[in-house]
Design goal:
By secondary structure, this protein is an alpha/beta fold. Helices cover 31% and strands 25% of the residues. The protein folds into three domains: 8-146 and 267-328, 3-Layer(bba) Sandwich (FAD/NAD(P)-binding domain), CATH 3.50.50.60; 154-263, 3-Layer(bba) Sandwich (FAD/NAD(P)-binding domain), CATH 3.50.50; 348-446, FAD/NAD-linked reductase, C-terminal dimerisation domain (Enolase-like, domain 1), CATH 3.30.390.30. It has helices at residues 18-29, 44-49, 51-70, 84-108, 160-163, 180-191, 211-223, 313-328, 357-364, 377-382, 411-423, 428-433, and strands spanning 8-14, 34-38, 112-115, 118-122, 125-128, 131-140, 144-146, 158-159, 172-176, 195-199, 227-229, 234-239, 245-249, 254-257, 259-262, 266-268, 282-283, 286-287, 300-302, 342-344, 350-354, 367-374, 388-395, 401-407. Strands 1, 2, 3, 4, 5, 6 and 19 form a seven-stranded mixed β-sheet that branches. It has a five-stranded parallel β-sheet with strand order 8-15-9-10-11. Strand 9 (172-176), helix 6 and strand 10 form a beta-alpha-beta unit. Helix 3 runs antiparallel to helix 4 and helix 3 (51-70) packs across helix 6. The longest helix has 25 residues, at 84-108.
């Protein structure tokens, strides 16, 4: 779509990911004239190279164990094989479909899509490739990108961005990192038959999640054959003629692999935006904003992963919506960051909301922890020893549930509803008063003693 030589907009959004698209759509619904600039595809990290394709790979990976377990349930499946190109191409086709829906939604709401890289040229102006654009308000929603260490040879590794496009699965893959992306892809590649080694520069995985839950994931992952090396930062990477890699660690050890994937954090996309020319200040590389998403320039706002808050898609969407309501809907709105639930789509998945047990003890002092450590019914008949663990953290002074954490099948699906109860401030007694649905895994949450 070709823009006029000197267009005038109420809002220019830079970045068509989850936060930017929601902000553009809602602002347009409030009557604003809106344009959105995007140099890649509509949909951003979540749709194109994150949550959506990752979850589809997780579904595909689950069939490895489901097909194995099927025999115990009377099903005979002969000659089963896995074809990575089939799953890869189907996932990429679905990503393209959803990206198209996002673009169609923007156009339906009258938002003009400007294809190209946007650079601020002032507090209310930007250049998009060779076009000058002026807007009353500018929203930066450029997201973040995977961090790649600067040690020698690290350019030979891949990130989650490239993982969805692999020509073939590596026989041996080394994953650097200990967060949710590292553990999710460790589970995915392991179920696809790759030999997986996770290396981490510290001795902790999934920092910020409850210790018992993350320890359980580590135990289960080791049982599944995933190898972990802790306190093992990378020193250098060498690529050989046959495309295999040798990864040298600062411990003095070296590892041979066919692919090296970095899952070592994400960096806000603030470079090349001309923020200096607009007087927009950064905080540790991210755009500094107030609780109404306004930057140090009163005409420029920012939402999502490009800011220094919570890097989660639903949070970016809330921030984008709140921004549009505040600036164009005459309805000042602030996002509530308390009790944000989150999940890790590992094998098995885990999820949590609120305070971990250690956080609660440090902050509240008198707390009680209720746990249920059980083997899901399906695992019992399948002959799997894998156990689920559910946990509620209770403020002992008033009985309020201040944290809920779990690992096991469908934990994220169950946690979404639990998060409503925790956010609402319900007490352990109110959980106990709820009649169980039997037989389910979720019933454990109202039977904790």
């Amino acid at each position: 779509m070709t823009a006029p030589a000197h267009p005038q907009y109420d809002l220019l959004v830079i970045g068509a990911g989850s936060g930017g698209v929601r902000a553009a759509r809602v602002a347009a619904a409030h009557g604003a004239k809106v344009a959105i600039a995007e140099e890649h595809r509509i949909g951003g990290t979540c749709v194109i190279r994150g949550c959506v394709p990752k979850k589809l790979l997780v579904y595909g990976a689950h069939f490895a164990e489901d097909l194995e377990d099927a025999a115990r349930f009377g099903w005979r499946i002969e000659g089963r094989t896995f074809e990575w190109p089939t799953l890869r191409d189907n996932v990429l086709a679905e990503v393209a479909r959803i990206s198209g829906i996002y673009a169609q939604t923007l156009q339906t709401h009258g938002v003009e899509i400007l294809n190209g890289h946007a650079t601020l040229t002032g507090p209310q102006s930007a250049r998009i490739d060779d076009r000058e654009v002026r807007a009353r308000v500018i929203l930066i929603a450029t997201g973040a990108r995977p961090h790649v260490p600067d040690q020698p040879g690290c350019e030979n590794g891949i990130t989650s961005n490239e993982a969805f496009h692999l020509e073939k699965l590596p026989e041996r893959i080394l994953i650097a990192g200990g967060g949710y992306i590292a553990n999710e892809f460790a589970g995915i590649f392991n179920e696809f038959g790759c030999k997986v080694t996770v290396i981490n520069r510290s001795d902790v995985i999934l920092r910020g999640y409850d210790e018992q839950i993350r320890d359980r994931l580590l135990q289960i992952s080791l049982t599944k054959g995933i190898r972990f090396l802790f306190n093992a930062p990378i020193d250098s990477v060498s690529k050989h003629a046959d495309s295999t890699l040798t990864v040298s660690l600062r411990t003095g050890d070296s590892i041979q692999c066919d692919a090296l994937m970095f899952a070592t954090g994400r960096i806000p996309n603030t470079e090349g935006l001309g923020l200096d020319s607009a007087g927009v200040e950064l905080d540790k590389g991210a755009i500094k904003v107030d609780d109404l998403n306004q930057s140090t320039n009163p005409h420029i706002y920012a939402v999502g992963d490009v800011t220094n808050r919570v890097q989660l898609t639903p949070v970016a969407i809330r921030e984008g919506h709140a921004f549009a309501d505040t600036v164009f809907g005459n309805k000042p709105t602030k996002v509530d960051y308390d009790f944000i639930p989150s999940a890790v789509f590992s094998h098995p998945p885990l999820a949590g909301v609120g305070l971990t047990e250690s956080q609660a003890r440090n902050r509240l002092g008198s707390v009680r922890s209720f746990t249920s450590d059980f083997r899901p019914m399906k695992n019992v008949l399948a002959g799997r020893s894998e156990r689920a663990l559910y946990k509620l953290i209770v403020d002992d002074t008033n009985g309020r549930v201040v944290g809920a954490h779990m690992i096991g099948p469908d934990a994220p699906e169950i946690m979404q509803v639990v998060a409503v109860a925790v956010k609402a401030g319900l007490t352990k007694a109110q959980f106990d008063e709820c009649v169980a649905i039997h037989p389910t895994m979720a019933e454990e949450l109202v039977l904790l003693k």
